[in-house]
């Protein structure tokens, strides 16, 4: 097996529309976040504190069954993107989900997922039945990001390989680059090239350290909508006769100066604001902000 096990679930339109809506509404029995505060029975009886109930029980059951099938922890993604920009919503900061509520929370919190839905709506102009959106639950793997790579395939040739996340410098990758290049070229020729009907695509892979066993993580579109990592699409798109697997180019971050900014951080909030309880950091932050504004207004009088 060259890829993690997966379960595919068709998403109903009402859930897709829910993902498009602003704001995050969690039901009372939501298990996506730990309980930071005990709520009294008196508070529970207050109708003003009632959270609107989300009627996605059937979908959540499918997700729960999928998680059990895949060993109790999964990595979620939609047709095109994974909610990597929302990983800060999960307590351990990963995309590993152990229940359906965490999966829903990640999808709802992700700008990448919202963008996918918006782009589809813009391009299609109508609502197909059934919904074309699918949720893919993949068996969770404890992956070292340093050994993840993005491979670019054009005309059924592996033309380029990049360190998947060029936000860090790993000195050992520089030393191992040539061996890794040969490992990935061989894997492509033996396991991917003749099994794909498409001639152009992006494929993310993971090389198990020391063992040099390769796993396919995901496939993507060959084009500007996919992150080119250490390349640019100006380099990758032009056709050329010498673009072949034999002449494949591999790039890793060669030194500290080559580190690139982490664009996923744009959508995140500071770690200290992850406590959403009534006495937590988020409320304290806004209380302090209001206090400073009132103080400034009083000084002007």
From TrEMBL:
GO cellular component, one term: cytoplasm
Similarity-based family: Belongs to the CDC123 family.
Disordered: region residues: 35-54
Naturally occurring in which organism (per UniProt): Arcella intermedia
Domain of life of the source: Eukaryota
Pfam family, one: D123
Name of the protein described by the UniProt record: Cell division cycle protein 123 homolog
